[in-house]
């Protein structure tokens, strides 16, 4: 089984979010970048398929040279090879188109992407890629098993779970649940050394299929101070929620 | 030309998120001098949509669509959009709509903006405001394609009644086998319990509860309020509560009217996930807990004494208000 894991290079979840150039660009100054958490759960599951079922795992990113450190981390965790599509990931449609080309040319059986990235939260790349390729697609996956050409996938639904079956090739939008938090791996020295010699192929983008453009960013308005209610006077809290906030 | 909404239904009823879409669509349609069309799937009574300004319903009835299939549903919506000559398609932020929206966008060669939180900033060029960086920022997105797909964030616009003389017609899109490549084997759905996605009120608790055996009071508080229960990431990681309850940046997002956090300190990732809630209440022993900086109301106190008292007082309040 050939697996492709799509990796977004995103600010660490603890990052302070600021903007520069007239609020048109994210301020990367002092920001630590990581593998997008939704992608990391998928990557870890892919490594499990490699170790248990002999799968071959390729990781891919659409981004600039700065994303290579993130791809090297994925290699250190256990991916076999990496591809970087040398382009600024301007919009979901554009990224999906670049990735669809990689899938088509690489003959992948299973493509795992995070259901959304934690920077732009577009939540569209895996679905668009599937629609462009005509592949089966399951979103918000919290579990996957593959037996030969058949996959059994669990997806989250509002208020529960749904178990579906599909044949490969398949694209999934993954999240926590594909593996647990405790299963995530920290690269060890041997992995880091081996990652240095693994192939990282540079591919130039094709076309310009962007459909949207982020023109400006805003930070939420400053919040007014919390109203403290004494623990001995919870009637006041109920009154505030009822009369002032009007939520109960 | 009209604006198309996908009106989701469950158990024979149009869902509330669909009324919010209709309210939003009506407002945009009025500014553009057009009408609102809703597409519904296997739902016989669509009359409730009229109150929110829907001018026309395209009612699809097909046994093949009894189970949700993102590809087939997306196909239905895309064909409805083509039939109506729609330039704007609106979907909700339900799990199913988030699943099908990118498929609709590709089928219509449309730009798609998700998590939209306000009416368009302008319609020419077409710009909308959406959340980004996990609710830590907003982003104005410009969509340059002739057809646009918008995912409207839950609870961001609200319901606006605006009665329309609604007409209804049946619509039979053509479906093919490729639409049903994903077979539903089993659905495990909690019944009789409010889900985090649909809840108006969410009661959430963290490590301050000291152990899973103490969740009884959290469930009781939720039950008194008709709320869903949720938890912080550490609590789901150590297995006190199921992952399905984990809310935050890497868990489920919450956009309820009221969010009550009990014994949750308020890590930046947690706040990011729940910040779209309208009113936030924190109950914590530590007055320095970061949650107090983002909350509207706060109680400094021990959950083990505050929560039981709050339950009793809420019961009395509910009794006197019913």
Automatic annotation (TrEMBL), chain A:
Gene3D superfamilies in UniProt: HUPs
Family, as annotated: Belongs to the ETF beta-subunit/FixA family.
Keywords of the record: Electron transport, Transport
Domain Electron transfer flavoprotein alpha/beta-subunit N-terminal: start-end pairs: 23-205
Q: Does the keyword Coiled coil apply?
A: no
What is the protein's given name? Electron transfer flavoprotein subunit beta/FixA family protein
Entry superkingdom: Bacteria
This protein's species is Flavobacterium proteolyticum
- PANTHER family recorded for this chain? ELECTRON TRANSFER FLAVOPROTEIN BETA-SUBUNIT (PTHR21294), ELECTRON TRANSFER FLAVOPROTEIN SUBUNIT BETA (PTHR21294:SF8)
Quote the Pfam families the UniProt record gives.
ETF (PF01012)
UniProtKB/TrEMBL annotation, chain B:
Query: What UniProt keywords are attached to this protein's entry?
Result: Electron transport, Transport
**Keyword Transport (UniProt):** yes
Entry's SUPFAM superfamilies?
Adenine nucleotide alpha hydrolases-like (SSF52402), DHS-like NAD/FAD-binding domain (SSF52467)
List residues of the Electron transfer flavoprotein alpha/beta-subunit N-terminal domain: 3-184
Coiled coil regions in record: none
Question: Can you tell which superkingdom this protein's organism belongs to?
Answer: Bacteria
Instruction: Fetch the SMART domains from UniProt.
Output: ETF
Q: Report the sequence similarity comment from the record.
A: Belongs to the ETF alpha-subunit/FixB family.
The record's listing under PANTHER family reads:
ELECTRON TRANSFER FLAVOPROTEIN ALPHA, ELECTRON TRANSFER FLAVOPROTEIN SUBUNIT ALPHA, MITOCHONDRIAL
* Protein name (Swiss-Prot/TrEMBL): Electron transfer flavoprotein subunit alpha/FixB family protein
């Amino acid at each position: 089984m050939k697996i492709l894991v799509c990796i977004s290079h995103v600010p660490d979840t603890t990052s302070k979010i600021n903007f520069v150039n007239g609020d048109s660009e994210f301020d990367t100054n002092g920001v630590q970048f990581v593998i997008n958490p939704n992608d990391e759960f998928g990557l870890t599951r892919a490594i499990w398929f490699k170790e248990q079922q002999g799968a071959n795992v390729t990781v891919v990113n659409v981004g600039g040279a700065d994303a290579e450190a993130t791809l090297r981390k994925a290699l250190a965790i256990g991916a076999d090879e990496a591809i970087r599509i040398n382009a600024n990931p301007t919009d979901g449609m554009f990224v999906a188109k670049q990735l669809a080309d990689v899938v088509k040319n690489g003959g992948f059986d299973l493509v795992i992407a995070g259901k959304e990235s934690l920077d732009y939260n577009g939540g569209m790349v895996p679905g668009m890629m599937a629609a462009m390729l005509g592949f089966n697609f399951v979103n918000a996956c919290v579990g996957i098993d593959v037996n030969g050409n058949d996959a059994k996938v669990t997806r989250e639904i509002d208020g529960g779970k749904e178990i579906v079956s599909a044949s490969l090739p398949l694209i999934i939008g993954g999240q926590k649940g594909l593996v647990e938090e405790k299963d995530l791996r920290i690269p060890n020295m041997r992995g880091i050394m081996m990652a240095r010699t693994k192939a990282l192929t540079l591919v130039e983008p094709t076309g310009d299929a962007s459909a949207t453009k982020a023109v400006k960013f805003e930070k939420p308005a400053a919040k007014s101070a919390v109203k403290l209610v004494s623990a001995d006077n919870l009637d006041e809290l109920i009154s505030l929620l009822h009369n002032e906030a009007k939520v109960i | 030309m009209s604006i198309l909404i996908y009106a989701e239904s469950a158990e024979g009823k149009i869902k509330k998120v669909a009324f919010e879409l209709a309210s939003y669509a009506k407002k945009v349609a009025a500014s553009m001098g057009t009408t609102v069309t809703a597409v519904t799937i296997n739902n016989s009574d669509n009359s409730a949509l009229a109150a929110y300004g829907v001018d026309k319903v395209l009612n699809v009835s097909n046994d093949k669509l009894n189970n949700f299939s993102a590809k087939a549903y997306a196909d239905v919506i895309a064909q409805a959009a083509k039939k109506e000559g729609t330039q704007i398609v609106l979907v909700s932020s339900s799990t199913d709509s988030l699943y099908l929206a990118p498929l609709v966008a590709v089928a219509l060669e449309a730009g798609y903006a998700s998590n939209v939180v306000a009416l368009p900033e302008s319609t020419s060029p077409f710009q909308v405001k959406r959340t980004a960086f996990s609710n830590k920022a907003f982003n104005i997105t410009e969509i340059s394609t002739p057809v646009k797909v918008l995912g409207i964030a839950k609870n961001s616009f609200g319901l606006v009644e605006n009665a329309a003389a609604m007409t209804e017609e049946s619509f039979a899109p053509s479906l093919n086998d490729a639409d049903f490549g994903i077979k539903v084997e089993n659905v495990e759905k909690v019944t009789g319990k409010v889900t985090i996605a649909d809840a108006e009120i969410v009661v959430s608790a963290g490590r301050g509860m000291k152990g899973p055996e103490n969740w009884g009071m959290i469930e009781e508080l939720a039950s008194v309020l008709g709320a869903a229960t949720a938890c912080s990431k550490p609590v789901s990681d150590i297995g006190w509560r199921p992952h399905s309850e984990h809310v935050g940046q890497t868990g489920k997002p919450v956009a309820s009217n009221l969010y009550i956090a009990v014994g949750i300190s308020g890590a930046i990732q947690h706040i990011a996930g729940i910040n779209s809630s309208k009113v936030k209440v924190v109950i914590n022993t530590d007055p320095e807990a970061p949650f107090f900086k983002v909350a509207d109301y706060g109680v400094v106190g021990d959950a083990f004494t505050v929560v039981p008292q709050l339950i009793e007082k809420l019961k009395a309040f509910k009794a006197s208000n019913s």
